[in-house]
Design brief:
This protein is an alpha/beta fold and 272 residues long. It contains eleven helices and eight strands. Strands 1, 2, 3, 4, 5, 6, 7 and 8 form an eight-stranded mixed beta sheet that branches.
């Protein structure tokens, strides 16, 4: 589920503005896997730890119904405020107690969320609610393998980014460390024999300096740092933006830079 640090409205708004929608490259891997293992029709997808709904909205055109579930009501309010997705329903709940009948779900997803789940209870619920040959797709990205490029100063930008990450590293909780391991332990515990891990999915995109700094603000370790010292956290964001702009030789935080992120995906299919 979404970390409880994001229970407040301000945090949910940050998450909505600055968290990335999972890339099409990963979405296509998931849908191709589902079609291969289960086939049509695609009736019900359940997006666990849905937060402000980025992954739920990505799935919506491909299923008759999508249900997003999250522990944070403020996150769900942000998700519900996005118009144009009549086949998505958002419910408050947890991945460990799913409000679905046995054998009713085609696809269970969790985007940068599965590291918050109670592993044993989640996997038991996944086994219960998935249809025969229904699929599970747990995806995420690596904070440490992000690379930035702008003209000839990419190395310096990456140095700034890494310095910020090192400042926040002591505030990394155990769950985020699990995510950085690409869910290796959870993958090993999945009881389905048909499962696979896809790593090093390189995704290139562009974003503004403003949005990059906002993305850093959305990190749970930044929010932990902010709880301890709000002024130091605010100064870190301001100084980070200033350093990025200085290295790039520009003044506008809306200047766009190239970003390469490394995604991973854990896939599994329930036996017939």
């Amino acid at each position: 589920m979404t970390h409880l640090l994001f229970e407040g409205k301000d945090h949910a708004s940050i998450y909505q503005r600055y968290r990335f929608t999972p890339p099409d490259e990963v979405k296509n891997i998931i849908l191709q896997y589902l079609d291969k293992k289960k086939g049509q029709p695609r009736v019900l997808a359940v997006d666990l730890g849905c937060g402000t709904g980025q992954n739920s909205r990505l799935l919506a055109p491909h299923f008759q119904e999508v249900v997003g579930i999250d522990i944070s009501e403020s996150q769900l309010e942000e998700a519900r405020a996005v118009p144009g997705y009549p086949n998505i329903t958002y419910r408050k709940g947890t991945a460990e107690e799913l409000p679905f009948p046995d054998g009713s779900v085609d696809l269970l997803t969790a985007a940068s969320a599965a590291h918050w789940f109670d592993q044993t209870r989640f996997l038991a619920e996944a086994s219960r609610v998935l249809k025969p040959r229904g699929c599970m797709a747990l995806l995420g990205f690596s904070y440490s393998n992000t690379r930035l490029t702008y003209q000839d100063c990419g190395e310096r930008l990456n140095h700034v980014y890494e310095e910020v990450r090192q400042v926040l590293l002591p505030y990394t909780n155990n769950q985020v460390a699990v995510s950085e391991s690409k869910l290796q332990e959870l993958y090993s515990a999945i009881p389905f024999p048909d499962k696979e891990r896809i790593e090093r999915i390189q995704v290139n995109s562009t974003l503004s300096v403003r949005n990059l700094v906002g993305f850093i603000e959305s990190w749970s370790m930044f929010q932990d740092y902010k709880k301890k010292d709000p002024q130091a956290a605010e100064d870190l964001l301001l100084n980070t933006q200033k350093r990025f702009l200085e290295e790039m030789g520009v003044t506008s935080p809306d200047t766009e830079i190239e970003q390469e992120m490394e995604y991973f995906c854990v896939l599994a299919s329930k036996p017939q």
